[in-house]
Fold Type I-B CRISPR-associated protein Cas7/Cst2/DevR.
Amino acid sequence: MAYLAGRMLVSVEAGAPNNGKGEDTTARVKYATVRGRRHPYVSAQAVRRWIRDGMVERGVPASPVTRVGKAQNRAQKANTGADPITYADDDLFGYMRAGAKKDDAATTLRDSPFMLGTLMSVAPVHPTEDFGVMSRGVSEPVLHGHEFYTADLAAPFLLDLPRIGTFTLPNSDGVGRPNYLTEEQALQVAQAAALGAGTEMFRGQGAVRLPVEERRHRAALLLEAIAHLSGGAKQALHYGDRVPSLIVMVPFKGGVNPLAHVITGDEDGLVVRGDVLRKELAAWNGEWVSPVRVGWRPGFRDDLREDFEKVCAQEIAEGTVVVNHPRTILLGLASEMREGAWDAWFDDAAE
């Protein structure tokens, strides 16, 4: 297997975890218009930040970020250390460090092995506008407002496991530059870090690759951070739990995601389709590895869970589908990875 495909759902109750551009004194939530109806959303960038922050909270050093351009009266940029060997977040989330043309500085870029979609409300929701007054200690009260909403937000994700800790090298024609590192630079850093990196071919290109022990460790860090997901805007007024209420994951050979229509919605709200999961698994037979891991928080839409477990009763009885708490599912898989149970996932599947 090469990819971990998944879909996660975060339930927002009276929250405003990701805001758009404000109007006058009113903060607006982000939303997309779908068939004329509003669907609030949280951008993938915001959720990736939550996950990244969660890794830092768990003791993972973050790649340093520097802001450049303003003092030099140039286009403003924010660059990370662009060092994916030292920093797991640069490795997992990628980066672009644009060099200045006039300095003939190179632009370095790494595509993110962790791909995440927009956390979009599964059903149309009209946000509530809350009107506020700040009158404490001032003679003339200050008026302000903000929007918040209650919704179930779902997003697909895909983790390209073989590419974690793998950095392709540009050939003589420049191919491979998007995941730039020169061999000399990469090995120099890797040796300094005593990580034991080596060179090998990866998807038809030369590459520097960290040992599988480090690569599985980084994949586990990501899963553990999702298991402890927190963050978002307006927590002082709208604190809310951000750990996924529902998550489905399946190891897959290719970079497709068969779970897009398993967690969905209609005019009445959330829909979880056990029948869709069964049909997708049958259609992709031989392309995935059992079990499909379903994390479902107790108390969250028990009616839908009962229906799902009835539809998938045979798969659950056979162990093809495993249902447990999202934290248990995520931490369990992370632990199995650390122990080396799934090292084969960190290489592309043989045809």
Observations:
- The longest helix spans residues 212-227.
- The mean pLDDT is 89.
- Residues 166-209 form one domain.
- The two ends are 11 Å apart (CA to CA).
